[in-house]
Structure formats: structure tokens, C-alpha cells
Amino acid sequence: MLDKYLKKWCLVILRPLAHLFIRLGFRPDWLTLMGLVMNVGATAAFAKGYLQWGALIMIVAGLCDILDGQVAREGHKETKFGALLDSTTDRYSEIFIYFGIGAYLIGRDEWIASGILFFAITGSLMVSYVRARAEGLGEDCKVGFMQRPERLTALAVGSLIGHQGLVFVLVLLAVTTNYTVVERLAHIRNRLKSGPNSPASVQQSQ
Question: In whole angstroms, what is the distance from residue 153 CA to residue 176 CA?
């Protein structure tokens, strides 16, 4: 949803900055790693209970995540390794953020919320895993509501609201991310059943 409606506006707004980075000779990988470092800083802020600061740092790191792809495309510096590095740092960044939130919740003896966090991070990682496995099978799998941009936006908004907002978002993520996993599995199952290599198609071709 955010990729479809919000990201294109961010690309337009950030284009002058992307062109500046291109003129300065910035490599996309540098921006990718800068985003990772910023998310480590956000992790520390969350762990210390500075939820609003953690959210703001997350947002800036997210802009780096958009800029690295924009610099790569418009600067003609796209590489397969860059795409792999971007995906890898995305997973690490998300895990770090959840770790910082977990440290914050445990420090407050919020054990129920910590348990909810476990299901939120499990669903978040599995959403990405199912997409990666589907693409390994040659199938596109971007369906589902709670993809990474939506997850991070929800965490940022909840953290800006405060403790109650963050806990509410964790409950939301625990439900919607795991639902998205099921939704993606159903999508790929239907695609594979109706594909050219499905048993019905093979039987008809014989």
C-alpha cells in the first residue's frame, strides 16, 4: 500500500537529494550501511525508553533506504550484490528495532507485551521469508497488507504516540503479519495450482 501510494511521492521529493549524492560520488551501498547504522542508534533509543527519538531515527533511516535504491537506479549503479546487501541489512535493521523494543518492555516488566512482540517479529520475518522462497520458485509474491514499509511505519507512529500506542501496534503486527504469511502462502498455492506445471495442466497437455 505504501509502495503504491506514498513511495512515489517520496521519490519525487527526494530526487534533488539523490542527484546531489550522485554528483558527490556517493555509492548506494554507503547509504544502505548508513541506514543500518541509524537503525542501530534507534535500537539504543528504544532500549533506553526514548520512544519518540527511536521513531524519528527510524524515519530518517527509512529515507536512506529509499535513497539508496534511487541513487542506484538514477546513477546507473545497480548491482546484484547491492540488492542482496539491501535486503540483508533490511532484515538486520528490523531485528535490531524489535530487540530494542524488547529490551524496553522487559525493563518495564511488560511480559505480556514482550510475548506479543515475539509473535510480531516472527510474523514480520516470515512475511519476508515467504516472499524470498516464492521468488526462488519463480513466483512474484508482493501480496498482503503488512509488508515491510507498513510494518515500520506502524512502529514509528505507535512509538511517537507513546507506550500505549506502541503496545497497540505490536498487537496489530502480531495479528496482521501472520495473517499476511497465510495470505501469501494461499496466493502462491493458487498460482502454482493454475500454472503450466500444475497436475491439471500436465494432464491436459498429454
Answer: 14
User: What is the maximal distance between C-alpha atoms in the chain?
Assistant: 65
196 φ, ψ to 5°? -65, -20
Cβ neighbours for 88, distance < 8 A, ≥ 6 positions apart: none
Given a contact cutoff of 8 angstroms between Cβ atoms, the answer to whether 57 and 42 are in contact is: yes
Q: Which residue has the cell 541489512?
A: 89
3-state secondary structure of 27: coil
Q: What cell does 32 get? A: 544502505
Contacts within 8 Å (CB) and 24+ apart, 156-161: 156/55, 156/58, 156/59, 156/62, 157/55, 159/46, 159/51, 159/52, 159/54, 159/55, 159/58, 160/51, 160/52, 160/55, 160/56
The helix or strand, by DSSP H or E, that contains position 184, with its residue range, turns out to be helix 163-194
How many other CB atoms are there within 10 angstroms of residue 75's CB atom?
Answer: 17
Taking only the tens place, the pLDDT of each residue in 17-39 is 888 888 888 888 999 999 999 99
Q: What is the pTM of this model?
A: 0.85
- Asked if 72 contacts 18 with a C-beta cutoff of 8 angstroms, the reply is no
With contact defined as beta carbons under 8 Å apart, do 110 and 118 qualify? Answer: no
The CA distance from 146 to 182, in Å, is 12
C-alpha cell at 165: 500506542
